[in-house]
Design brief:
This protein has helices at 2-16, 20-28, 33-54, 62-73, 93-105, 112-137, 142-150, 153-162, 166-181, 185-198, 206-243, 245-252, 272-275, 278-344, 353-372, 381-385, 399-414, 431-435, 442-457, 463-494, and strands spanning 83-84, 87-88. It has a two-stranded antiparallel ribbon with strand order 1-2. 72% of the residues lie in helices and 1% in strands. By secondary structure, it is mostly helical. The chain starts with a helix and ends with a helix. Pfam families: ALG3. One of its GO terms (cellular component) is endoplasmic reticulum membrane. This is dolichyl-P-Man:Man5GlcNAc2-PP-dolichol alpha-1,3-mannosyltransferase.
């Protein structure tokens, strides 16, 4: 009987997959994203392999990366002496170690095809981490991610046709975000710092992360986490710091270096003199700080709510688990008792006339009660016998952490002195989340995504695409600000 019941349950669940509501949910319901996420990963594997096999590789920085690492592998520890065809080495020590590994794996950088397949693996791993965040937050419908991720020409180009170091830094960042969601603070800090060790742009998340530490852990533990982040930078950079500390710090963490106007995506409409002017850079820094002053208090309120609800989860979850365990034991005991009774009473007894009359009257009463209740159907006896399973989905709390992190990074991208084409990977996978956090219509959201993609796909950039990119960025940020301001005002009234 037990085997038959399990088969019936399996068959019932299997048939649900072919219902209209289930099929529709796979497209529009964020809670059913896991199935769509699997399809995205499979599709991306196929797409990236086709891109590598059929689209010609374009050399930009890979050769220079190999030349810089070759100098290190030959014993040069003075950062000012490590150079490639595109100029001096300007990335921290983590970059050197990772690309030195690639140097060995790809035969001194000559096996480009193998390097491309390595980057396919990097991209798919990052995509798994990104989709895990979207699955937990349950914010964005599956069809949005399918369309956005699969159709981005620029992102596929950055990862498997250009072999930039930005994707590796972003990979570590998304690993860190996943660890923070799981409250694995030390691992989160380690992977965050590893991301910084590959490229400095990961520091754009630092303002939000600092207040996240402070809100959840307090001052003492925050200092410990910051110490861990700093220690990793010191350990990784130690060989270079011991050899020539000034050259290493100036080369790998040079916040004042001038970008090449030739590659700019966001400031093509400016003259080179203005583009390289320090007053312009300081103005952007001032705007960046001003926007952080506006948004950080909102982020802190989100973090405080996240902290309180996480505390509730710690208190409630053990009770839920204990109750479910108790119900499971009771259910098991009932089944064992039924089996014992079934063995004792193998011969079914004939019902008396009084018993038959009682059953008939009871069925009539059930039918009448179901008619009075309208659409509410009476549960079957088998359903009444089943013990309830209690569950509260706490994963959705991740929204209170992820949104502030994405906002602060987005502000940093908006205020960047220059955006080169590979920088699109810094915030591409967060755009659907930011857009589905505001109250724009679906048409406007997809229009913004399409316009941003168009701006990044236009090479070389034009006055129009540069200006349009700023308009899109401001629109997205304004939409997010308007939405979360309204939500926080509503919460303050309820309090």
């Amino acid at each position: 009987m037990g085997g038959k019941s399990k088969f019936q349950d399996f068959y019932h669940d299997f048939m649900k997959m072919f219902t209209w509501s289930f099929m529709k949910g796979l497209v529009v319901n964020p809670t059913q994203l896991p199935f769509a996420a699997f399809l995205i990963i499979v599709a991306e594997l196929i797409i990236n392999v086709l891109v590598v096999e059929r689209v010609p590789y374009t050399e930009i920085d890979w050769k220079a990366y190999m030349q810089e690492c070759e100098g290190f592998l030959n014993g040069t520890l003075d950062y000012s002496q490590l150079r490639g065809d595109t100029g001096p080495l300007v990335y921290p020590a983590g970059f050197v170690y990772i690309y030195s590994l690639f140097y060995f794996l790809t035969g001194q950088g000559e096996n480009i095809r193998l390097a491309q397949y390595i980057f396919i693996g990097i991209y798919l791993l990052q995509l798994c981490l990104v989709l895990r965040i979207y699955i937990k937050t349950k914010k964005v419908p599956p069809y949005v991610l399918v369309i956005t991720i699969l159709t981005s020409y620029r992102i596929h180009s950055i990862y498997v046709l250009r072999l930039f170091n930005d994707p590796i830094a972003v990979l570590f960042l998304y690993a860190a975000l996943n660890f923070f969601i799981d409250s694995k603070w030390y691992l989160g800090s380690i992977f965050y710092s590893l991301g910084v060790s590959v490229k400095m742009n990961i520091l754009l998340y630092a303002p939000a992360l600092f207040f996240f530490y402070l809100t959840n852990l307090g001052l003492k533990e925050t200092i410990i986490q910051l110490f861990i982040c700093g220690l990793i930078q010191v350990v990784l950079g130690l060989p270079f710091l011991l050899s020539s500390p000034v050259a290493y710090l100036k080369g790998s963490f040079d916040i004042g270096r001038v970008f090449n106007h030739t590659w700019t995506v966001n400031y093509r409409f400016l003259d080179i003199d203005v583009f390289e002017n320090k007053c312009f850079h300081l103005s952007l820094l001032a705007i960046h700080v001003l926007l952080l002053i506006v948004f950080i208090p909102m982020c802190v309120k989100y973090f405080k709510s996240y902290c309180r609800l996480k505390y509730v989860q710690k208190q409630v979850q053990p009770q839920i688990d204990a109750k479910n365990l108790e119900n499971k034991r009771k259910s098991k005991l009932k089944k064992e008792m039924k089996k014992k009774l079934g063995k004792k009473n193998e011969e079914p007894e004939n019902l008396t006339k009084e018993q038959e009359d009682f059953i008939n009257s009871f069925e009539t009463m059930l039918q009448k009660s179901s008619q009075k209740g309208g659409k509410k159907a009476v549960r079957k006896p088998a359903e009444l016998d089943q013990d309830p399973h209690y569950n509260i989905n706490f994963d959705i709390l991740s929204q209170l952490f992820i949104l502030p992190m994405f906002i602060v990074n987005f502000i940093g991208v908006m205020c960047a002195r220059s955006l080169h084409y590979q920088f699109y990977s810094w915030y591409f996978h967060s755009l659907p989340y930011l857009l589905w956090t505001n109250n724009f219509s679906v048409i406007i959201r997809f229009l913004l995504l399409a316009l941003i993609e168009m701006c990044w796909n236009t090479y070389p950039s034009t006055y129009l695409t540069s200006a349009l990119l700023h308009v899109c960025h401001v629109t997205v940020l304004y939409g997010v600000y308007k939405k979360i301001s309204a939500e926080l005002r509503m919460v303050s009234k309820l309090e």
